[in-house]
Structure formats: structure tokens, C-alpha cells
Write a structure and sequence with these properties.
Order of helices and strands: HHHEEHEHEEEHEEEHEHH
Shape: globular
Helix content: 25-40%
Distance between the termini: 39 Å
Largest sheet: 7 strands, mixed
Number of strands: 10
Radius of gyration: 19 Å
Oligomer: single chain
Strand content: 15-25%
């Protein structure tokens, strides 16, 4: 049975806001910050993690937002994530680096990689930072959008514990292995963050809790047969069959093999790691400076043309055609308007 919290964010319209008590984002951030500091994180790092979680929740990606806070606190309490971690660059070839996260929270490792990538991209035009010895890093778009807001193009992938069966297979071999690409900001933002599975496990878990059936093609049972019953879910299905399997393998290649970390099927599930040892997850963050290619102005013009053309395309229904990131940005605006 699939047990791990989701890692990849499907590029789909977020679910409507949860019902019940709501709090202001600033209050949510403050509460998360206090809890993380109490768990041993320095204040600056607690701010970074709290901001990442709150921002992700505001964008409607609740599976990767504040819902992960208890998980991260548990990792800190058991030593799976080290509050006093000291990430270190262990390989440096200028535009290519390998960062040992020293067992830090994955969010902090991802942000450290993004900062390094931005610094080196400013010097070399492109930079790639591999990360090893890390933990679950939430929504991959946190890092790519961080880079995009500085005028760079950001790309991020991460390995994850296996729960996606290969096309035609039975046993889960791959994680949801997300791919995120971001450029621009505000209304002129392209922000792709998608799992390479047909659906993230958060949706399966939610349907199970609500006693609702699954859509066809989402999961398979222990015999490798498609099922619509969430209680029978054994493995997630790859996005688009063999094509999704290829993407999942590419992410494993970049996030695990290239960084020298264990492949997905050798990673422990969330909550099943050994106390005092990180889960050994690998990430890869890339930054590209448009100035090194077509030029910043030309790139901005091309990005606007791309987004505008897609958004104004003739819609087949009464709903407009959307670009990656549009649903999340709209959700963020709606949630902020409630306060």
C-alpha cells in the first residue's frame, strides 16, 4: 500500500479551499516558524521553511504546503533531518557543483542549491547544482520560482521513494519524480511543476478518506491491474504510460544517479527512515541566464508571446486555455482576498 506523502505536484487546477477555520497567512507563517524554532532550527532557516510551506498552500497545492509541517517536525525530532546541518560543496567545477546537504530539511537544501545556482549562473550563464544526503523538499516550484524571480530560468527535479510502477509492471520502482521549470514573474510567469505519475498520492488519499472512487488509469492493484478503488491502490501509474515512465527514469537519472544517491526503490518511505540518518534523497537544480543566450529583453518578449498565445487560444469549452502556473496564481489571489 502506498504510504508516503506526495513529492510531485501535478500540473492541474488546485482543489477548492478546505472548509473549516482559516487563519491569516502571516499567522500561519508565525506558527510554523515558532514550531520549527522549537524543533531546533535557527530563526532564519525557520523563516525560509515556513515561507515555502505557506506560499505553497496559498497557491492551492495543499499536499505540499503546511500539511507537511508535522512531517518535517517529526524528521527533526528523530534526527532524520538535522537542525544543525552544515551543507558543504564537495565537488566544484565552476558551472557544475555537488552539494552534500548534511541531512538537512529538503527545503533548506533546495534553497541552498538555488542560491548557489543563481550565483554561478550570473558568472557562467548556466549552472547546475546537484544535491545529495537530503530529505523531502516539498514543491519543486519553490526553487524554480525563486530563480525565475531573479530573471533566470529555473529547472528542478528530485528523486523520491518508489510508489510508481513502470508501464506494464507491478512493483513500484519510481517516485512521483517531479519536474519543475519556471521563468518570469507575476502575470508573466511560466511555472510548470508536475509529477511524472498520473496523479499524486495526495489525491488518492483524499478520495480514500472521502470514500470516493478513483479515475481510471490512476493506480494499479497488487496484481498490476488498473483499479478505481482507493483501498486497493498498490502503485501509482506513470503519466501517459511508457512516456511517463521515461520521464520518471530521466528524473531518477538526474536526481539520483548523477548526484550519487540511492535510486528511488532503495529510499525509505516517509516515516520509515532510521533515526539519526537522513533519507538520502537527491535533487538537481539548474539555472540559466537568458543574457547568455538570446538576451534578457528578447527572452522576456518571447515569454510574453508564448504565454499570450496560449492563453488566448480558442477554448473548446467555456473555460479558457491556461498556461502552467495560472491555476495556482489564481488560487493564491483568491485565498489572499479572503483576508
Amino acid at each position: 500500500m502506498i504510504t508516503e506523502a506526495p513529492t510531485g505536484t501535478p500540473q492541474a487546477e488546485p482543489a477548492p479551499p478546505a472548509t473549516g477555520r482559516t487563519i491569516h497567512p502571516r499567522q500561519a507563517s508565525a506558527l510554523a516558524r515558532e514550531a520549527l524554532i522549537a524543533a531546533g532550527l535557527p530563526a532564519e532557516q525557520a523563516d525560509q521553511v515556513a515561507d515555502a510551506l505557506v506560499t505553497t498552500s496559498l497557491r492551492g497545492v495543499d499536499t505540499h504546503g503546511l500539511r507537511l509541517l508535522p512531517q518535517y517536525l517529526a524528521e527533526l525530532s528523530t534526527g532524520v533531518a538535522r537542525a544543525a546541518a552544515q551543507p558543504t560543496v564537495v565537488q566544484d567545477r565552476g558551472a557544475g557543483l555537488l552539494l552534500d546537504a548534511d541531512g538537512s530539511l529538503g527545503v533548506l537544501a533546495g534553497l541552498s542549491a538555488a542560491r548557489l545556482a543563481a550565483e554561478r549562473a550570473a558568472r557562467y550563464g548556466v549552472a547546475a547544482v546537484g544535491v545529495r544526503n537530503s530529505n523531502h523538499f516539498g514543491a519543486a516550484s519553490v526553487y524554480t520560482r525563486t530563480l525565475a524571480r531573479t530573471g533566470l530560468v529555473g529547472i528542478a527535479v528530485t528523486s523520491a521513494a518508489s510508489r510508481v510502477a513502470p508501464h506494464g509492471g507491478v512493483e513500484p520502482l519510481f517516485g512521483t519524480n517531479p519536474i519543475s521549470v519556471a521563468a518570469g514573474s507575476g502575470d508573466e510567469e511560466f511555472a510548470l511543476d508536475m509529477a511524472t505519475s498520473q496523479v499524486c498520492f495526495g489525491e488518492v488519499k483524499q478520495r480514500r478518506a472521502e470514500r470516493r472512487g478513483l479515475d481510471g488509469g490512476w493506480v494499479t492493484d497488487r496484481a498490476g491491474r488498473p483499479t478505481r478503488h482507493p483501498e486497493e491502490a498498490y502503485a501509482l501509474s506513470p503519466l501517459g504510460g511508457y512516456k511517463g515512465q521515461g520521464l520518471a527514469m530521466a528524473v531518477t537519472l538526474l536526481g539520483a544517479v548523477l548526484t550519487g544517491t540511492a535510486p528511488d526503490w532503495r529510499l525509505s518511505q516517509v516515516g520509515e527512515g532510521s533515526a539519526g540518518a537522513s533519507r538520502g534523497i537527491g535533487h538537481l537544480v539548474l539555472a540559466m541566464d537568458p543574457a547568455a543566450f538570446t538576451g534578457a529583453d528578447s527572452f522576456a518578449t518571447g515569454l510574453t508571446d508564448l504565454l499570450t498565445t496560449v492563453r488566448t487560444a480558442t477554448a473548446a469549452t467555456d473555460r479558457p486555455v491556461l498556461a502552467p502556473g495560472d491555476p495556482q496564481r489564481a488560487h493564491e489571489q483568491r485565498r489572499e482576498m479572503t483576508f
